[in-house]
Structure formats: C-alpha cells, structure tokens
Amino acid sequence: MMLEVSVRHAFGAFSLDAAFRAPPGLTVLFGRSGSGKTTIVNAVAGLLMPEAGRIAAGEWTLLDTDRGVALPPHRRRLGYIFQEGRLFPHLTVRQNLSYGVRFAPRDAPREDPRRVIDLLGIGHLLDRRPGALSGGEKSRVAIGRALLSTPRLILADEPLAALDEARKAEILPYFERLRDEVSIPILYVSHSASEVARLATTVVALDAGRVIAQGPAAAVLGDPAVLPTGPREAGAVLTARVARHHDDGLTELDAGGLALFLPRVAADPGGTLRIRIAAHDVILARARPEGLSALNILPGVIEDIRPGEGPGTIVALDTAAGRVLARITRRSAAALRLETGAPAYAIIKAVSVATSDIGGTAAR
User: Example GO molecular function term (predicted)?
Assistant: First the structure.
C-alpha cells in the first residue's frame, strides 16, 4: 500500500511545504531538529490540521482539504509509537497490550497476540507493571500495543531518542523485524544516520520544511549534497552476505565479491546484512597499499569529488561492494591528485565499523 503525503502549513517564520510517496516498508523522515519531521507525522495522525494538504494510503483518504475530508484521529486507524512509550502505569503489560486490542475494529483482520508477543520477545513481562520495566522493555511493549490495535499505518516519532546506546542496540533488531514481517507501512522519524542506514526501506530527507531527497538509504546517505545533517554524517550503506566466522573473532563478509572483515557479527553464514561505513573512517590511496594493519582494502574508481565549505572534501568511490564515501582534507585530495575516473583504493579498519551500524536483515 502506497502512502501519499502532501502538506503545507506555516508556524510563524517556519513554513512546511512537503510532498512525498512512501512505498511499502519502513519510510524514515530524516533531518535536523526543526526540519518538519514531527509536524508531518502529527498531520498524518490527525493531531495537526494543516492549512492545505492531502494524505492517503492506497484507496483510504485521511485528509483532503480540497474536498473537505479530514478524518478525526480516532478514525484514522493508526498505531503511534512515542519517544517515552506512554504506557499506563497502573496496568500490567498484558493489560496495556489488551488496551490496544480494544481499539481494533470488529471487522478488521486482527494480529495474533501470541505472534506479536513472540515477535517482540515480551512473553516473560506480561505480569509486570511499567515501573518494573527497563526503557527498552517499555519500548517493545509500546510497539506491541500499537500493533494489536490493528492499525493501517504505524507512526514512530524518534522512538529511540530517549534511550541510551545499550537500550537502542536492544530495540533496533525489533524494528528490523517489524519492517520485514509486518505488512503495513511504517513512517519513522529520526535524525540519526545510523538508524536510517539500518532500518529504512525509503528515506525522505527534509531540510527547513522541504523535501530535499527521497530514495533508498544507500542513495540518500551516499549523496553529501543532499544530506540534511551535514557532511559529518555522510557514509556508505553496503549490503553484504555473511561468508564465514573466523576463530580470531572476525566475521568475513562477501560484499559484491570483495571480502569485508568486521568484528564478529551475530548472524549465520549466508545471512544478508546492511552495513553503514562512515566517510570519516575511510582512507584513500592511489595505489594498492601494503604493510598496513587495516584489513579492508576496496579497489574502485573515483566517481565524484565534492569540496565542502571548510577544509574537507567528500570523495565518492565506485567499488564492486557499492558506493563508498571518504571524507578527507582538500590538502590530501590535492596531494594525491585525485580526479574523477581515476582508480583508487578505500581503506577501512575492521574495528571502525560500530555494532550499531550493522543491521541484522537487509530491507526489501
């Protein structure tokens, strides 16, 4: 089911004028704070009435200001996952989940509660109250409550922003499973390039209330010209297959026929991963280097050189593994005499790729 959103609204000096189409899967609204991400989600939820716009999911129209259509929030059949979880503190986990079931239309196809509980790994929490849950456990219960309301669309407004890194690492795999195993569209708000790289089927990049790019994560995150969060967040998103695990604690991946070594990954051989490699972690060489401690040396051809406003330059390298970005100084680019079409090598330390930048399943 295709989600179509077109919204115009003004808040004082801020003006939102954004339109995009989100195919099935998990669509991330990505941009800096204040770029309009939450405003769009609230318009989809019916919590904000925009001055003009149209929002539809397939044949189902939520808003059309030209036709005078504006469904109230309780009729939009949405599951909204907030940053804080917002569970009822006086109810057990089982009762919080049941509360979501109460809002499911009688004639709607219902999610099997046992499947949802298994999907989120919360079976052992059913008799606890929210006060006895960790931040990550609360987030999983909030996801379950949203799913069991039988929504036509799930909204997630920076659901990991209030969690520490350990809890984020706990929750990210559940959103990956949600993306891959639940058939309804998911609209997810984030300003984290790592989250986008791991989760997004589609990225809608926003800046100052406007859509500046839309497409797969690899395309949007790999284009520093449109990256709304700045060049420091630039990086490649590669898809690779787990080849084997080595006894020295490394996992060998097959990335387009090239070997890529990372610290041991919890995935079976043959499984597919999505990996984000930050541009500032990549070194470039014009000739194949020798005698280095870095294990990953990817040959390629320089596709683009884009100087920044400061001393930095982003260099895009076309490799068999995919498009790799390197953030180097202008001085280094000049010393290496880099030019488009020239061969070069991307050098990546195995330990430079953070665990949070490795997704357990590739999106559709």
Answer: ATP hydrolysis activity
Q: What is the DSSP string of 61-86?
A: EEEETTTTEE--GGGS-EEEE-TT--
Short-list 209, 233, 211, 212, CA closest to 221: 233
Q: Which residues pair with 29 in a beta bridge?
A: 189, 204
pLDDT score at 222 = 80
Does the domain made of 235-359 have the CATH classification 2.40.50.100? yes
**Cβ 236 vs Cβ 322: under 8 Å:** yes
- Token pair of 354, please? 């953070």
How far from the centroid of its chain's Cα atoms is residue 9's Cα? 26
| Helices marked H in 212-294 | 217-221
Question: What SS3 class is residue 182?
Answer: coil
Q: In the chain, where does the domain assigned CATH 2.40.50.100 lie?
A: 235-359
CATH topology of domain 3-228: Rossmann fold (3.40.50)
Q: Give the SS3 label for residue 287.
A: coil
For CATH 3.40.50.300, the residue range(s) in the chain are 3-228
- pLDDT confidence of residue 360: 67
* DSSP β-ladder status, 343-348 and 282-285: antiparallel
- φ/ψ (deg, to 5) at 290: -130, 155
pLDDT of residue 348: 95
Where helices occur in the chain by DSSP H, the ranges are 37-45, 93-102, 113-120, 135-148, 165-181, 193-199, 217-221, 330-335
State yes or no: pLDDT of 104 exceeds 70: no
Over the stretch 191-233, which tens digit does the pLDDT of each residue have? 888 888 889 999 999 999 999 999 988 888 887 777 665 667 7
Residue 361 has pLDDT above 80, yes or no: no
